[in-house]
Amino acid sequence: MIDVLQLTKSLIAMDTINPPGNEYLAAQFVGELLEENGFDVEYVPFESNRIHVIAGRGYSKSSPPIVFTGHFDTVPLGAVKWSVDPFGGEVKNGKLFGRGSSDMKGGVAAMVVAAINAFSIGNPEGGLRLVLTAGEELGCQGAKDLIKTYSGLGEACGIVVGEPTANMPAIGHKGGLYLNLSCTGTTAHSSMPHLGDNAIYKVARAISKVEEFDFGVEEDPLLGFPTVNVGKVFGGQNINSVPDFAEFTIDARTTTKVEHHKLLAKLQKELGKEVSIETLTDLIAVSTEEKDPFVQRVYKACGIPENAPGYPKALPYLTDGSVLQGAYGGIPTIILGPGQPEMAHQTDEFCYVDKLEKAVEIYTNILLEKCAYVQ
User: Fold this and answer.
1) pLDDT of residue 372
2) pLDDT tens, 41-75?
3) What is the mean pLDDT of residues 18-24?
C-alpha cells in the first residue's frame, strides 16, 4: 500500500512555486505512479515545463465516473523566514510542514492513494477520472486552458476538489471577478494644475462610487451577498506634477445571483466613460444543492448525519471547481481536502498527518459508496 505521508513529502520536495510553476516533474511523478497501478494517463501540455495529468480507470457505459481534481502549483514562500525547510517535509507533533502541505499537495497525494486503494479493494461504479492541473494559484489559468485545448474530459457524475477544508465538505464558494480600472489625464506643472487633467481625481471619484456600489441582487441562500473591495491604487510620477495616469483594482466576490457580464456593464455605467475596465480573472461561483444524491454520498463518507449543525458549508476562496463545474455541465461539485484552510499561503504551512490519512479513507469510501455512519 502506498503511504500518503511519504507521497506528500515527495511532492513537497519538488519546487512548484507559481510563478513560474515548473509542475512538470511533479505531474510526471504522479502520472507514472498511477500508470504503474493500472490507470490510463494522459499528459496535457500547458506552458513551458508545465503539464496537466488526466488519469482514468474503470469507466463504464452504465454510469459516468467521479472526478477528483487538484493542482500541483503552490504560492511563493513569502518574505518572512520559515522556521523549517519549506521543501523538507518535516514532521513535528503530528504536523507535516512544507509549502503545499495544505494547499494542496496533501490533497493531491490523498486522492492518488485513495484512487489506487479503491481499485485494489473493489470496482468503483462508473470509475474515476483524476484531473490534476498546473497553474491554479494565479486565477485557475491552467484549468481554463485545459478545457479549451483538451477534448477528453468526458462526462462525470460529480466533482471532488481536494482544496484544504480540514476534511469538512463544502458545497460551494463565491466566484471572483478581478478587475484593473484606469483613468488617463493630461500632465502639467503642479503650480498650474488648471493646465492639466488630474487622473488621480478621476480614480478617487470612481473609488468613492465603488465603495457605495449596490449589486442589486437578492441574497444567495448558500453564498450570501456579493462583496467588492478596492485592493490596490497607483498613480502619479512625482509630487510637483499633475498626474496623467492612475489605476486601481477591484476584487468582486460574486454569487449565483450575479451574472458577470451584467456586473461589468453596471460598473461601467456607474463609473462613466472616463474609467477603463480590464478583466484580470473571471471565475463564476460554485454551488450545489445539499439534497443532491452525490452530496449525500460524500456526507455519508465523511460521517456527517442528516441535518448536522454547521451545514451546508461554503468557502471564501476560489478553486478549479469554478472552471470544471461549468465544463461538466453544472454537475454537483464539492470541495473536500485534508489541508488546514487557515494554513494556505502561510509561512510554516502544515497539514495534520492524521487528516491526510483520514482523507484517504474518506475518498476511498466515496468511490466505493461506503458510509462512515448508519442512519
Assistant:
1) 52
2) 999 999 999 999 999 999 998 899 999 999 999 99
3) 98
Reading the block at residue 26, the C-alpha cell is 511533479
Q: Which fold has domain 175-283?
A: Alpha-Beta Plaits (3.30.70)
pLDDT digits 0-9 by tens, 142-178: 999 999 999 999 999 999 999 999 999 999 999 999 9
> For 4-173+285-368, which CATH superfamily applies?
Zn peptidases (3.40.630.10)
Cut 0.85: pTM above it: yes
Instruction: Express as a percent the part of the chain with pLDDT over 70.
Output: 98
* Range list for CATH 3.30.70.360 in the chain: 175-283
